[in-house]
Write a structure and sequence with these properties.
The complex is a heterodimer of chains A (281) and B (171). With 281 residues, chain A is of the alpha+beta class. Chain A contains three helices and twelve strands; from the N terminus they run H-H-H-E-E-E-E-E-E-E-E-E-E-E-E. Chain A has two domains: 140 residues, Thrombin, subunit H (Beta Barrel), CATH 2.40.10; 76 residues, Thrombin, subunit H. A six-stranded antiparallel beta barrel of chain A has the order 1-2-5-4-3-12. In chain A, strands 6-7-8-11-10-9 form a six-stranded antiparallel β-barrel. The N and C termini of chain A lie far apart (66 Å). In chain B, helix 3 runs parallel beside helix 5. With 171 residues, chain B is mainly alpha-helical. The chains are: A alpha+beta (281), B mainly alpha (171).
């Protein structure tokens, strides 16, 4: 007799939790303006956990790599090989430092070239769920970063800030299914909207059937969305197909390699003078 | 104690997902460690704990993502409940059945998750079959390894009642 009671209660619990979720989802789908307070508070708190985890992971990885290297050296029992291995490790380290330096140099060059105020930020964590394409950067409201600010890299636009806590911000990548940006074909000036589909390829929509678009055309931001400044690189046209309707079916390969991003620039104030400086930290 | 353990495991899974997994898989995101925690907890603790773990973990993941808060929560709630019920009906004390449970749970989760988005008109019908299968395989592998590691901990057999040979999750 006790078993059916328990089962019944589990059923009620499942029903209550499911209904709660459905109400929660419905509320958001009906009104999607702004960031929910719950989201901002939890993100703010968890960003600190992510920062701490990130700072713990790096030494552990370094320690583990050192341990493996040491075991190999002991097994070989060869002083010369040990020196060689250390030299190789040093070369790798220097190469990594050089790569990082080159990346920062490109970022600095980009910042000098741009006509608006930016601040550089390091990527500290990736998306919490595999189905969404977001990043966490190590700068927040204390450094002047707020929601709906554009995030860019030397090769093109990365995405926009969707939530900001005091010391970290969540960036929605242009690849995310919920992301979009006003765009135009650089050569023919045909306008459209670039939409993320979750992969490296983007979709360029609302481009007229009669518009002049060919494979390889550069796609840049149009600035009409009020988030991304005009003229920043988005990518290149990969395919152009006729859809049979009023618009063409166009795919765009993003210029930014999102899997290798380490540092980005956040556009703090678009449209200001070129001499504008980064805000104090 | 179990509640604290589940909350801690979920937080660790999200933290690992967003930091270590990023380095390990170079951005391909072939794992959903939070789902692994939900399925693991459901198999060990039963359907009630499974659905509550799914609710908590899913909502945390939703809040930290850019999607609609609640869709991941609902998906993981249903998966936690279904896996918990399956754990009480079938013997899943061996590697192959556990692998199958983790694999099928990931497929079911992807179906519910993507289905809800399609139902709400927030996503196209196109399903990334390759990515889902890769994630199911990855999750199953990690889940099985997690079970094996947990069983090697001192006193695990006594705590879970494995001394008798078969474990029955609490309802």
């Amino acid at each position: 007799m006790a078993l059916p009671d328990v089962r019944q209660r589990v059923g009620y619990l499942l029903l209550a939790v499911s209904v709660g979720h459905i109400i929660l989802i419905s509320a958001q789908v009906n009104s999607r303006s702004g960031v929910p307070v719950l989201s901002a508070v939890v993100f703010g708190a968890f960003a600190e956990v992510q920062r701490v985890t990130s700072s713990v992971v790096s030494p552990v990885r370094g320690g583990w790599t050192g341990y493996i290297g040491l075991r190999r050296v002991k097994a070989e029992n060869d002083a010369l090989r040990q020196q060689l291995a250390e030299a190789q490790l040093e070369i790798q380290r220097q190469r990594a430092l050089a790569d990082r330096g080159r990346g920062l140099e490109q970022l600095l060059e980009l910042r000098d070239r741009l006509a608006f105020t930016t601040t550089a930020a390091e990527i500290v964590a990736a998306s919490a769920a595999p189905d969404f394409r977001t990043l966490t950067i190590g700068k927040g409201t204390l450094q002047g970063v707020h929601t709906d600010m554009a995030v860019i890299a030397p090769s093109g636009i990365v995405g926009r800030v969707v939530a900001a806590s005091a010391l970290a911000s969540k960036v929605q990548l242009l690849l995310d299914r919920n992301a979009a940006a006003g765009a135009l074909i650089e050569r023919s000036r045909s306008q459209g909207v670039v939409i993320g589909v979750g992969e490296q390829l983007l979709r360029l929509e609302y481009v007229s059937e009669v518009a002049d678009v060919v494979v390889g055309d550069a796609v840049v931001t149009s600035g009409i969305d009020g988030i991304y400044p005009k003229g920043l690189t988005i990518g290149r046209v990969e395919t152009v197909e006729k859809s049979g309707g009023a618009y063409r079916r166009i795919t765009v390969r993003a210029a930014v390699d999102f899997s290798s991003l380490e540092d980005v620039l956040v556009v703090l104030a678009p449209g200001t003078s070129q001499d504008a400086q980064e805000t104090p930290q | 104690m179990r509640v604290a353990g589940v909350i801690l495991a979920t937080i660790v899974a999200v933290a690992v997902q967003t930091t270590v997994a990023r380095f390990a898989f170079r951005g391909t995101l072939a794992l959903d460690l939070v789902l692994v925690v939900v399925v693991y907890a459901s198999l060990i603790l039963g359907p009630v704990a499974g659905l509550l773990t799914g609710t908590f973990a899913g909502l945390v993941q939703d809040i930290l993502s850019s999607g609609v808060v609640g869709i991941g929560g609902l998906s993981k709630t249903l998966i936690g409940f279904m896996v918990g019920v399956a754990g009480t009906q079938f013997i899943v004390n061996h590697t192959v059945p556990r692998f199958v449970v983790f694999f099928l749970a990931t497929l079911a989760h992807a179906t519910i998750f993507i289905g809800l988005y399609v139902l709400l008109g927030l996503r196209e019908r196109a399903v990334p079959y390759g990515a889902v299968l890769a994630q199911a395989t990855g999750n199953a592998f990690v889940g099985v390894v997690a079970f094996r590691l947990a069983e090697r901990l001192p006193g695990t057999a006594n705590r879970r009642g494995l001394a008798g040979g078969i474990s029955r999750p609490k309802r």
